[in-house]
Specification:
Blueprint: H1 4-20, E1 25-32, H2 38-57, E2 61-66, E3 77-83, H3 89-106, E4 110-117, E5 120-125, H4 144-154
Antiparallel strand pairs: 1-4, 2-3, 3-5, 4-5
Bound molecules: 2-acetamido-2-deoxy-beta-D-glucopyranose (NAG) (4 copies).
The site of one 2-acetamido-2-deoxy-beta-D-glucopyranose has 5 residues, from α2 and β2.
């Protein structure tokens, strides 16, 4: 961790910049599948519409699941979003909204996907998040290796 004093002024600086500029796309990963059902794709769409709405009124993170209509639940989608801890309300939604559109564009056939911006992240998967979802450390962007570890962690 960065010492608190330095970290606070650094955050303030970042927040000032973030308020004035559009969020910056950093990275995405799509695990594609040719076997996706239309129900699964519909659920992904529902999830991505939920993240946009929820990010405006939440504390900057949340997760949910969109269940299938069938009893096996094999079309269920589990997803989360997180904005950096100092980003909420309008700014969080602005980033999440951009990220959701980009995710749809970049990952049209993904069973699991993740997209990172400088100040927010969206992720979804077809497997239930086991236990507690750790949200804040994932915004510690340290490159692709870290992202792959996360995928294994949460699914
Ligand atoms: C981010 O992650 C790296 C590698 O896991 C770690 O060394 C570093 O201390 C972390 N930074 C913060 C601010 O948590
Ligand atoms: C998944 O599909 C997208 C869009 O077609 C492509 O850009 C991406 O490279 C694919 N991902 C993998 C891991 O193959
Ligand atoms: C988080 O999402 C759940 C749905 O999964 C919703 O019921 C709840 O109100 C949301 N919380 C906030 C703070 O937005
Ligand atoms: C999730 O998708 C993968 C890849 O398509 C599949 O192998 C796995 O069985 C699915 N898991 C669930 C819980 O549906």
């Amino acid at each position: 961790m960065i010492p608190i004093g330095i970290s606070l002024s650094f955050m303030f600086l970042l927040f000032t910049i973030a308020s004035a500029q559009p969020p910056i796309y950093m990275y995405n990963f799509c695990e594609n599948s040719t076997l996706l059902s239309s129900a699964y794709k519909d659920n992904v769409e529902t999830l991505l519409s939920w993240v946009t709405t929820d990010s405006f009124k939440s504390n900057g993170y949340n997760y949910t699941s969109v269940n299938s209509n069938n009893h096996n639940n094999d079309d269920a989608v589990y997803g989360l979003y997180s904005c950096r801890s100092d980003i909420t309300g309008y700014f969080c939604r602005f980033c999440i909204n951009s990220a959701a559109s980009e995710l749809t564009r970049r990952c049209p056939n993904a069973v699991r996907a993740i997209i990172w911006y400088d100040i927010c992240i969206i992720r979804y998967t077809n497997q239930s998040f086991s236990g507690q979802v750790s949200l804040s450390p994932i915004l510690n962007i340290t490159g692709t290796r870290k992202i792959k570890v996360m995928f294994q962690y949460g699914t």
